[in-house]
Known about the structure:
Elements: H1 2-24, E1 41-42, E2 61-62, H2 68-73, H3 82-103, H4 113-140, H5 145-174, H6 179-199, H7 211-223, H8 226-236, H9 238-244, H10 247-266, H11 283-312
Antiparallel strand pairs: 1-2
Helix pairs in contact: 3-4, 3-11, 4-5, 4-11, 5-6, 5-11, 7-10, 8-9, 10-11
Amino acid sequence: MLRERTTTSMQADALSVIDRSTQDVPEDIARPEASTDWLRLLKYNELEEWQKDNEFIHGWYRAPLYSFKYCFLSWFRWHNETVNIWTHFLPSVFFAVFLVTHSSMSSDSFVNQLEEKQIIGLFVFSAWFCLFLSALFHTVIAHSRKIASIYSRLDFCGITLLIMGSFIPWIYYNFYCMPQSQLSYISCLSILGLFTMVFTQWNRFSTPEYRVVRACLFIALAMSSMIPIFHACARVGVVNAWEECQLKWIVIMAMSYLFGTYLYATQLPEIKLPGKFDLIGCSHNIFHVFVVGGVMSHLVGVTNLRDLRQAIGSNCTVTHDL
């Protein structure tokens, strides 16, 4: 009898410890019972507050998963982040392959092989980094409040790095014979980019009410590149800059980014037809597609600039700088 009472007492103590430990676990730590719920989809009004972002997307939300395993398994089923994940993951694979290919190119394709590989490699890496982090963020956004917050800030870092990495090769080639201007513009852009990256780590920056602020900040960072663009146009003329400076691809990239960002900020088209674009066709889906279009167009422009410089060689006709 004493042994039975002792065993019963030990079992009760163990259960008590388990109950207390369960109560003490923060909401951001994995909950074992959540793993059995990974197939469940929710309506907007069923979401926890930290999950709410776009009230015009009415359904197909993943329940909180509290598990990276189930977040990644959700890649292979339909929910309202499926399109967001795949529209950036697949292009990130392309840029990863392109980066490897670019690194192995022969010296015949460059005037200054080491510098140019690094400069173009920075852009390709920033494109891969941005697209991959975006796909990762949309994957784990259903994990928990803490994980969603961490990865949203990483996503903002990726966007900032892409803007910086996009314009540095353009400045490098178009001011190739003007090293002081080249260094000044690259330095200023890098400082502004780092400031933006730090600012985006503010917790409230990722909340829905800061949607327009986010869009405006990234647009402002991109618009800072207008100074070297005006400088290049003033130097060679707008007509010549269209081809010589690959201005046409800059315009296409800018239009892609601006149109996509406009839809993201205004939540078109779902704001006009709430609940009709839950799975595909919402503003964030379209924004992703235009981001990829902008990155790809800029890649064409940068490779054209590389080929133009390779054809000219190291010859410089500019006699003054700044």
